[in-house]
Each structure stands twice: as C-alpha cells, then as structure tokens.
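REQUEST FORM: STRUCTURE PREDICTION
Request ID: SP-0412
Submitted by: Lab K.M.
Chain count: 1
Length (residues): 145
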Amino acid sequence: MTNPIPSAGETTIIGLPAVNIPMTSNGDRPLTQDDLDTIAKLRPGSALLISTRGAVSGSRYLLDEDEVNVGRDPHADILLDDSTVSRNHAVFKRIGTLFQVEDAGSLNGTYVNRQRVESATLNNGDEIMIGKFRLVFFSPATLNA
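STATUS: Completed
RESULT:
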C-alpha cells in the first residue's frame, strides 16, 4: 500500500527546482510518486495525461505529436472503449509549447474542469472528462505557470 500524496498546493521536490504540481482534487486516484517522477521528466513540447477514473484508471498517455485523437474507434491514438465515448470524441492539439483539447462533435461533449467546451487551452492540473473517463493534464510548459 502506498502513502497518500500531499494535498494540492504543497511543493514537491523531485531533483529539479521545486515546482508546484496540483494534485487531483476529486479523490478518485491520487498521483503516485512514480507519476510525479514521470511528470518531472517531461520534455518541452510534450505533455502527459493521467487517467484518474474509468476502466483505465492509472494509465498514462504521452502527448508528443501535433495531434492526438481520442475516442472509441479502435484506430484512435487514445482508445477509451466505453459507450459514453464517441468513436471520434476529441483531439488534443499542440500549438507551440501549449496544448488544446477540441471536441470532435461528440454526443456527450468534452469537459475541462467540469465545464463543457468546444475548445480549451490546457493548464497544468486541468481535468478533462471524456465520457466517464477523467484525465489530468500535465506539461512542463505550464509547471511554473
């Protein structure tokens, strides 16, 4: 059994200058030390999604291409296999060092921090809800923002 991760707002030192990493606030799955180590090693121009709810809870998805498609289609870059997810649900787009999520005309919508969005620029710790799945976003470009 692992020890719980400190609450949001505490500083975590991981071999680099201290960075403020928001913890998941929904309590579904707290970040592990391994998650924090992986976040600290992200390269500029990349980002990481960590699943905190759904059948894939604990899974990590590296965003290191200009576009990453998410959906129920078996050919999606990130496959979320559930009837609450559209075949082509959303697209993560890299614009410079920032990332955006865009809804791809899904039936159930794409949510960022519990707000339905057509498109949104993502910040460190943002929670993206796609169907019943919740993914938390992390990027080195926004670690100290």
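NOTES: Confidence is low (pLDDT under 50) at residues 11-27.
Reviewed by: T.R.
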